[in-house]
Design brief:
Layout (H helix, E strand, L loop, with lengths): L6 H13 L11 H5 L5 H13 L3 E7 L4 E5 L1 H11 L4 H14 L7 H8 L3 H11 L25 H13 L3
Length: 172
C-alpha cells in the first residue's frame, strides 16, 4: 500500500481488496467497524477519507447507521493486491494488453481472454480493470453484471496504440 497512508487506512485498504473475492469492486458499510474493532468511528471515517483522497475508494452519500457506503476502485487493487493476494494487477494488465494487440480480431471477448490465461477471476478482473480507461465507453460493453468489469472490448487502431503506450509505461 501507500506508505504515506495511516496504518489503519493501509490495513483497511488491504482488507477491502481481500474481501472482493472475485476481483470486482463492491460496496461496504458498517461491517468495516466490525472488522476493525480497535478503530473508533472517527478513526474509521478518517481512514476511509484517506483512501478516497488517493482514489482508492469511492464514498457514497448514502450513510448507513454509522458509515458512508464505500466501494473500492481498481486503483485499490493495484495498490493492495501485492500484499493482499501476492499478485500485481499492473503486470497482469500488460499481459492482457499484449494478448489484445496480438489478436485484435477477437474483439476482446473477456470470457475468452480469461479462459486463455487460465487465471481465477480474482486475479483477472483487477488487471482488466486497469485497461478500461483505454477504451471509450462506446467500445466496451457497459451492461451491469458481476462477473467481469466488462464483457467485451472493441479493439481498433487507437486502442491498440493506447495499449502499446500502456505497455511501454508499465514495463522496464
Amino acid at each position: 500500500m501507500y506508505d504515506h497512508l495511516s496504518p489503519l487506512a493501509q490495513r483497511v485498504g488491504v482488507w477491502l481488496a481481500k474481501e472482493c473475492t472475485n476481483g470486482m469492486p463492491r460496496g461496504f458499510g458498517d461491517e468495516l467497524l466490525e472488522a476493525f474493532p480497535e478503530a473508533d468511528l472517527a478513526a474509521m471515517r478518517t481512514a476511509l477519507a484517506e483512501l478516497k483522497v488517493e482514489g482508492l475508494v469511492e464514498l457514497s452519500g448514502v450513510i448507513g447507521p454509522r458509515l458512508s457506503r464505500s466501494r473500492p476502485t481498481y486503483r485499490l487493487f493495484t495498490a493492495a493486491d501485492p500484499t493482499a493476494t501476492r499478485q500485481d494487477p499492473m503486470r497482469d494488465a500488460v499481459i492482457i494488453a499484449r494478448m489484445l494487440i496480438e489478436d485484435p480480431q477477437k474483439n476482446g471477448i473477456v470470457r475468452d481472454l480469461n479462459r486463455a490465461l487460465g487465471w481465477e477471476r480474482r486475479r483477472f478482473n483487477p488487471a482488466l480493470g486497469q485497461l478500461l480507461d483505454l477504451f471509450p465507453s462506446n467500445r466496451r460493453s457497459n451492461e451491469t453484471q458481476n462477473e467481469y468489469p466488462t464483457r467485451q472490448l472493441l479493439v481498433l487502431d487507437d486502442e491498440i496504440l493506447a495499449m502499446q503506450r500502456f505497455i511501454k509505461s508499465h514495463t522496464l
